[in-house]
Amino acid sequence: MRERLGRECVYVPSCRLAVYLSLRRWCAPGGTVLMSPVNDDVMVFVVLAAGLRPVMAPMPPRDGNIDIRAVPESTWRSVGAVLTTNVYGMPDDVDELRTRCDRMGIPLLEDAVHAIGTTVGDRPIGTFGTAAWGSPSPIPPARVDRCVHFVRPWCRTRRGFVYSGP
Ligand SMILES: Cc1ncc(COP(=O)(O)O)c(C=O)c1O
């Protein structure tokens, strides 16, 4: 996976744990996370478990992802992170989300669970987020208790924090 994505990967025993670790690592305590309302329900509970508040984004009927242009500017200014889902393998406009997040100085967290193998341009899903994760668990024949956490080597947040590693 490291070779395929060109970024550091960490194997963790559950995808939910990968999401939880990412949220705790990259989101300010008590902050908000912009996400699509179409998602596995466990994701809402992981966001809550991490002490954060999910903010449901407007959603275009065609793909269930975040309707970037319909998100009010006041919401963009207030959210602490964006979580992109790539519902059923249909990617969000990740270039636009990445640009917005960089402009706001907030992390883009990328759920690649439904979209392992999907590319945007020639770039695989899983390479756009500050952190990303994947899991074979929604695919019954591939079900294993293991998932992958893809880590961006640095992240600048609104508070000017820089992470260099792992
Ligand atoms: C989009 C999405 N993210 C995360 C998860 C959580 O994965 P896991 O069940 O491996 O913890 C799922 C599970 O189906 C999912 O569909």
UniProtKB/TrEMBL annotation:
GO terms for biological process: polysaccharide biosynthetic process. GO terms for molecular function: pyridoxal phosphate binding; transaminase activity. Keywords: Aminotransferase, Pyridoxal phosphate, Transferase. InterPro entries: DegT/StrS_aminotransferase, PyrdxlP-dep_Trfase, PyrdxlP-dep_Trfase_major. Its cofactor is pyridoxal 5'-phosphate. PANTHER family: DTDP-4-AMINO-4,6-DIDEOXYGALACTOSE TRANSAMINASE, TRANSAMINASE. Belongs to the DegT/DnrJ/EryC1 family. L-glutamine:2-deoxy-scyllo-inosose/scyllo-inosose aminotransferase subfamily. This is DegT/DnrJ/EryC1/StrS aminotransferase family protein. The lineage of its organism: Bacteria, Bacillati, Actinomycetota, Actinomycetes, Kitasatosporales.
